Amino acid sequence: MIKDLIVNLTVGAPRDSAADYAISIAETFDAHLAGIAFAFEPVVAPSIMGGIPADVIDAQRASTQKAADAAVAYFETAAKKAGLSAEHRLIEATLGGAADLFGRLARRFDLSVVGQAEPDKLASQDIIIEGALFESGRPIVVVPYIQRGPLKLDRVMVCWDGGRTAARAVADAMPFLRRSKSIDIVIVASGREKTNEIPGIDLGQHLARHGLKVDVKRIVASDTDVPNTILSYAADSSTDFIVMGGYGHSRLREFVLGGATRGILSSMTVPTFMSH
What we know:
It is a single chain. The protein is α/β, with parallel strands linked by helices. It has two domains: 4-143, Rossmann fold, CATH 3.40.50.620; 155-275, Rossmann fold. The protein contains nine helices and twelve strands. It has a ten-stranded mixed β-sheet with strand order 3-2-1-4-5-12-9-6-7-8, sandwiched between helices. The longest helix has 29 residues, at 54-82.
């Protein structure tokens, strides 16, 4: 059961799709919601350190603070309108420090919610997604920046490859799966078959024992086209919510996403639940 969740508030945007979606999740589960807004420290290249007037740096700092204040105000208004138990924190941090801090904060919540990065904008969202995925030990939901509607679970898609990370995602997503109307277990078959791959029918039987309505689907993709194949299937089947393992690793505090995971995050159009 989900009793509390944390959302990274989108700073510098007129509408916060991540906050709106997190509010709808909190409403669904009657959960407490914490909103975190980061006021990022100005980024100054080492080669020009000392060459930028102090008043320019102060102006940049004031601008990021104002944007964070606006994100908090948006969140507070929306949460109050929904009648939620909610809190917020505004934190000054560097870009890298924010990712690490958000991951550590998320350890104390059942779920974290982060918005997808918009194209051609600061990569803060990508870094915070990776921090939450690798450092929190908790599942995350990534919300497309184009998302307009609230949480909807009429048709859920589970991406299954028989691996540990996918199994962790299915287990963590059970509160959502139990509220779904139908579930497609999708196995993407590529040119190379895993000899130890667990057949998707086994997972279907497992979920059926939980009283869930499940169909097992097998689709074919080249090794390099797995993300597009998954997203195309999601679009064709009117999927509302995707569940998948978040692949990659964190080494020496450098986050490295797997290719399929990064492809989904860059092109996603459906809210996606991930566990690592």
